[in-house]
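Hi,

I'm pasting everything inline rather than attaching a file, because the server keeps stripping attachments. The sequence lines come first, and each chain or strand is labelled.
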Amino acid sequence: MNVGSLSETRGERLTQQAIIVIAALLVIYPVGWLLYASATPGGKPGFDAYVALFANPELFRVFLNSVLVAICAALIALGCGVPLAFLAVRSDLRGRSLISLCAMVPLITPPFIGGLAWAVLGAPQTGLLNLAGKWLGLTEPWLNIYSLGGMIFCLGIYMSPYVYVLTAGVLAAIDPALEEAAETSGSRTGDVLRSVVLPLAIPGIGAAALVAFLNAIEQFGIPAILGRPANVFLLPTEIYRLMGRMPPNLAQAAAAATLLMVLSAIAIALQQFLVTRRSYVTVSGKGFRHKRLALGAWRAPAYGLVVAYALLAVALPVLALLVNSLLAAGFVSLTGNSLSFRHYVYLWAEYPAGLRSLWNGALYSAIGATAALILGAVGAYFIARNRGWFARVAGMVLVLPLALPGIVIGTGLMLAYIKPPLVLYGTMWILVVSYITRFLPFGERATSSALLQVDRSLEEASAVCGASWFATFRWVLLPLIRPALIGGWLLLFISMVRELGTSVLLYSYGQEVPAVVLFDLYESGNMGSMSAYATILLVLTLIIVVAFQKFLSTEFAPSN
Amino acid sequence: MSTVRIENLEKRFGDVEVLKRVSLTVPAHSLVTLLGPSGCGKTTLLRLVAGLERADGGTVAIGERAVSDPARGVHLPPAARRIGMVFQSYALWPHKRVWENVAHPLRVRKTPAAELRDRVQQALGVVQLAQLAERFPGELSGGQQQRVALARAIVYEPEVLLLDEPLSNLDAKLRTEMRYEIRELQQRSRLTTIYVTHDQEEAFVISDQICLMHGGVIEQLGSALDLYRTPRTRFVADFVGAANELPGTARSAGTEGNVAVAIADGWEFTAHCRHRFAAGDKLWLLVRPEDILLVPGGGTGASARVVQVTYLGGISEYVLDAGSFRLKARELSVPRLAAGDRVGVNAIRTFALPQ
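And the predicted assembly:
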């Protein structure tokens, strides 16, 4: 007997299962093509492409660099995120509540736009920070953002919010009685932190570091912007290069994409292990009142860290883009500058893809967000209310895209939808499908976390009253989880509008989307227009974030 | 072992005064219970003694040492107060084995290895958990976790033992057993102990003295017998056991211990009192249900009609209608009256409080 099907008819159940099968196909079909292509170099079965990844010194270098960059970026993210989380949750720092805005950084300056801004700030000759150095009397540029170090720095800065959010959650969830017990046992503050807080938080912090690693290794934007000018390639940019060659080396790209997928999967598996097996702290949503640690002499360095992070992650980049966009020349010159709106006018009136891309982005993302949310929501509901192998497999498939970097999905979709039976390449639908595929887990997660808070008995009460499954869903469940769904939709929409990794591979003329336009303007060296476009995008995002803050905040602070 | 002296202790959370100039002395080797409803300030008082909260005024001294005296800028951290504490949630460190949990207070005091081993073993022996030393807290039952918390609190022989509702997370049967165990442990170790609970029965079993708190002040400090037989306030009378409360008048100026009382319907009693009443003073007459003597058939004096009969197993409870008021009476027997019966009513013992 299946209790989950309390009031579902056979038809309703089949509908749910059909939706899940569609979602599964979206994910599995391109991955299948990817694996197939990687194992058939030159049309013949074989593992040459995989062997080359390690035997070819150039490719092996790319692999090593990718791992090195991601590890170093994760370490920087730990260095920023953990202290920030501690200051926000456990210290008596004044204005500490502002630190929680750190969680909003990816919404304001996503890594890709941050990377563009840092190119404006740290280019060897024209970078604003180097000009400032020159003005102060330095003869040589002191900063070259186009380097391995530059990528590590930028990725580290923009991965820090992930570490911050997860660590803050863990620190807030530790029962204060555990620390008080140590105090009454005779432990001084330092010892309490070392012998109780740290060991309890370590698995969670480790998991946070893995999330940062995962996000860093799959980033396409920053390596594309900061690495390629220095001829340093990482796996995502290498895949892009292999796909862009004439003729494209599909098998090699697919093999590299598979390797990237495996690395991501390993990081996720480790992270899950830490969270489920090693963690003593369960984030319960129960509000604890923690004693705040007096910082004393550490107050000044603490403020220093907060201010430095705000400057490096948000203030300087946004300012650089804004200033650049308002200069006639499109860059700052030490000999004299004139203000102008010509870059905005150019985007509006002359650049053909300018306005079109905003419209395209909004349209594709609205369709994509709605579809991903519906698929994710039905899937999450089904998984939450059912047991058995079907629900378990569905659960795994729906979150599988988390292990699929954008460039990997892009490669898979390209291979899958460029030839029959499904030819989507060249139409807008390949972009829409790629967004749905890539962000499916967001839709699932938005719903499942909300569903966890709805007691099953509420549905059962409705069923006992004689309501059908659909009526129960429509009139009982939906109103209860609506705020979470709205928040989920907005997050999906914002993420999709700014998606770069798959779009850059899959778009065709006429289907430009915002990230692609930014990337193009940057590639063609039109820094003034690029800055103007980025500024417009920032303002639009900010308007959405502020207007719908109420719904978005549910993503960051689980409500009771 | 040390006496704990609390004088004029004050604590505010924002605008809320949680403790209003509370003074209390806990004699060395004795166990004092802080009893009261939730929000009465009992846990705050305990946490102030532990140093987990900062006082806003007044002093706390353990033995000869002032551990908290905000007027002089004195606030010793918990670590320096030489206390042992058991938390409501036990607060066992989930990442340490039982042995390490109990050893921690000794480790931070840099106890030599041999002595540490002996002491931990002894403490685990006292709570009968020596065989579970290698387990993690998550692998123990609630009762076992409770014992580990107790062992951890006593392992280094603190000057004061503090217990914050230690039994409230246990099931009813285990809770009654543990009461006696904790009392026995305290008597054997002769630790000065402060025990917080909201359970009156628990307080009665365990305490030398009970400190009944309400709204941030101490309503009464005394033995279980004091609180039950000679309550200072209506709140005490009501919180400790059940009581019939009847408005009445002093018929004549009473003496130090007695007063003649008239209540509605011409009923008259001679009541015990702590207060000296003048003739005509309004007062409350308190009568415990088990102090009411029922005479079947009516008798000559006051009489009432039985309205409701409840058998509680061993005890029978009657609700009586005396005309203008109702009374509750209890007898240690099977019901011998039925609803509708008329009974004569006498009180063995009554107590008067000023209104």
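The longest helix of chain A spans residues 57-90.

If the labels don't parse on your end, tell me and I'll reformat.
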